Structures are given as C-alpha cells and as structure tokens.
Amino acid sequence: MKKVQGGRLRRWLRRLLWLPVIFVVVSVLQVATLRVVDPPFSSFMAIRQMQAWARGDMGFGIHYAWRDLDRIAPSLPVALVAAEDQRFAEHFGFDLDAIQKAERANARGRKIRGGSTISQQLAKNLFLWSGRSYVRKGIEAWYTLLIEAMWPKQRIIEVYANVVEFGDGVYGAQAAAVRFFGKDASRLTPSECARLAAVLPAPKRYSVTRPGPYVARRARAIERQMRMIGGRGYLQRLD
User: Fold this and answer.
1) Residue 166, SS3?
2) pLDDT tens-digit readout, 133-175
3) Is the dihedral of CA 225, 228, 232, 233 positive or negative?
4) Which CATH number is 38-50+62-238 given?
C-alpha cells in the first residue's frame, strides 16, 4: 500500500513540475498569436461580464469594436501616452524612474499612482485580473516582458487603445467614440481624445460626458503634454 501511495505522490509531483513549463508555452503562444490576430475580447471584459451575470444583471453588455490604429484618430494614442506613460517609446516595459518616484512618495505617506506603464496595464487588462497580490504582479511582469519582446510599440499602443476601459463596460476607442461622442473613432478631436484619457485609470468614477473639475483640468493638462511630446508626430517615433 505504501509503495502504491508513494508512486501516486511521485506522479503528482512530476505533473506539478510540468505546470511552469506549460504556463510558459501557453503564455508565449498567446502573445505570439495576438501580435497578428486582433483580440476578440480581453480578460477584463470577460470578468466584467461574468460579474454582471453573477449578480443577476442580465441586461448588462460589453461595448467593444476593434479598430486598426490607422482608423483611430492619431490624437488618441498620443493622449494615452501623454496621460499614462510619457516614456513609452524609450522603456522596455518598465519605467524604473517612475517606480522609484512612486515608492518614495508612498513611503512618505502620499497616495499616488504606481509606476505602471502602458505595457504593464495592457498585460493586466488583456490576460489577467485586477488585484494587488504578488502572484498577479509577477505574472503581469512576465506578460509585460513577452509583449515588449514580441510586439512592436505600435502594436502595443494599438491593442491598448482598443481594450482599455473608458466607461462602465465601454472598451476601446471605437465603442467610446460612438457611446460618448456619437462619432467614429477616426473623427475624434484632440480635446475629445484628451478627455477620454483623463478618466483613466478610474473610468467608473469619472465621466467622459459629464466631466467634473478634476477631469476638465486633467484633460487640459493632457492636451498640453500631447503638444510637448510632439503631437501626431510622436507616433512616427514608434515605427
């Protein structure tokens, strides 16, 4: 009996040892596939829909429609960079300076945003779930490295602009443009793009259509930053 139990234990241990290998292979295949295939949904979209169903909200629906980067107003990806990650063109997925500044500020008791880059946020939104556990942060870092290694910068900002949440259940440039401004994503103005970026990273707390003083101020600041980083010409740096 002991030999049988010992054999079963060894088999389970061997299977457990294969789990990291399986995870690496699956994650590499995921990222490689989405370099050329436009994602039909993200992890955040799926989780949000399941949460609505779980509480009995059968009328809730995800609003999402993919648009290639050349069919999105150039001001929107520039606004996202200006608002979220101004060193996007230079870093390798992690902005070490921003992380250190956030850590110093948090140590002094000042509550500020962390140093997450667009690549990190994309990794989380596309593949993972929200939360602050070390396990999730570790998996996020792995996916971030894969994305940066396997995708060009233009692909990263293209996918991010399509899956980021701009309102409750409203994901991506096209859905947001139609829902909030009644127009196609290609026709968004710079000020509208700045307002969309201004509600991040709390689109359920702040409103694009009814911007309060904070969103209005932040949108104006983002427009200034958009000009400072080169406006539409910024995208050429990502080629």
Assistant:
1) strand
2) 899 999 999 999 999 999 999 999 999 999 999 999 999 999 9
3) negative
4) 1.10.3810.10
